[in-house]
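Hello,

Our lab assistant flagged a job as stuck in the queue for most of the afternoon. It eventually completed. Since we weren't sure the result was trustworthy after the delay, we are filing this so someone can double-check. Below is the sequence as submitted and the structure that was eventually returned. Let us know if re-running is recommended.
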Amino acid sequence: MSLQFVKASTSDALTINGISKRAFDSDVQVGAPSVGGPPGYMSVPYHTKMARSNHLYKLIDNGLIVGGAILFPDKDKLNIGRIFVSPEHFRKGYGIYMMQEIEAMFSDVKEFTLDTPIWNVRTNAFYSKLGYTEARRDNEFIYYSKKHE
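-- returned structure --
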């Protein structure tokens, strides 16, 4: 497995957009009330804008883009806006790899934050397994945090 987790360019936006759409639409299998995703999850202009502003990342396996992430660094915190893996590559360790790479790339960050829908049993279990703890919740989302010493 030759994996690379690197910043994406605007030329990757179309491919990453397709992966994002398929990944988030697959959430209907794990409790989503309907097909859908976070704002911009199926918008090429959104992914292009994220690439232009250096927030878009891609996971490459042997030259093929298999996943992506949108990250928002803010001083000593990093908000993991979203990570996603192409559904045909679920359960292969890509998500764990991406999260480990994110934490390593931003090793100077004191806290990682993210949120995920309450209904998403898959992502809630995933983030808990990686050591993220619930900071708070509202009617729709659970907000997670992981301190970095």
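-- support follow-up --
The delay was a queue issue, not a problem with the job. The result is valid. The two ends are 30 Å apart (CA to CA). Residues 13-25 form the longest helix (13 residues).
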